[in-house]
């Protein structure tokens, strides 16, 4: 089996869009965003200005993706990465493919000089929590909040 973890490229747009819909709608059960918005997000990440996407390619097919966004830590006064997404189709979870995609994000963070990589996962996503715990990840002492502006 040939596994390749690499930066997303423009030629991946259609397959990456399907992966992102599987993640948003299939996994998280959220409303399907407009395809043009997904394409705009992919293009923004292809430009590497605000973040970067990696894909897992198995036997020529995209089977997973990870997204890192670039931000700053005021506490460290340094740039950090935020792993916003780590998603694989079901047969590839808990496999070497998932390990390699996650490690690729860690290596990128380290080799590009970011202070650290942070991420969150759903409180009910026990599988992901177990995966991260097994990788030696440290649980944060912070509680996450969100503000969602009311619809106009």
UniProtKB/TrEMBL annotation:
UniProt keyword Transferase, yes or no: yes
For the keyword Heme, the answer is no
Q: Where is the N-acetyltransferase domain?
A: 3-152
- Specify the superkingdom: Bacteria
Q: Which UniProt keywords apply?
A: Acyltransferase, Transferase
**Which SUPFAM superfamilies does the protein's record reference?**
Acyl-CoA N-acyltransferases (Nat)
Q: What Pfam families does this protein's entry cite? A: Acetyltransf_1
Q: Which InterPro entries match?
A: Acyl_CoA_acyltransferase, Diverse_Substrate_AcTransf, GNAT_dom
What protein name is recorded for this chain? Answer: N-acetyltransferase domain-containing protein
């Amino acid at each position: 089996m040939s596994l390749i973890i690499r930066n997303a490229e423009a030629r991946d747009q259609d397959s990456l869009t399907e992966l992102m819909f599987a993640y948003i709608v299939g996994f998280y059960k959220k409303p399907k965003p407009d395809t043009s918005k997904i394409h705009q997000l992919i293009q923004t990440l292809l430009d590497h200005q605000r973040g970067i996407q990696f894909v897992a390619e198995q036997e020529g097919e995209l089977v997973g993706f990870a997204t890192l966004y670039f931000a700053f830590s005021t506490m460290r006064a340094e740039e950090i990465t935020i792993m916003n997404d780590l998603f694989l189709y079901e047969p590839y979870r808990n496999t070497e493919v998932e390990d390699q995609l996650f490690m690729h994000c860690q290596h990128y963070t380290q080799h590009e000089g970011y202070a650290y990589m942070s991420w969150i996962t759903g409180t009910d996503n026990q599988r992901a929590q177990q995966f991260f715990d097994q990788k030696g990840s440290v649980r944060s002492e912070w509680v996450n909040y969100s503000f969602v502006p009311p619809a106009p």
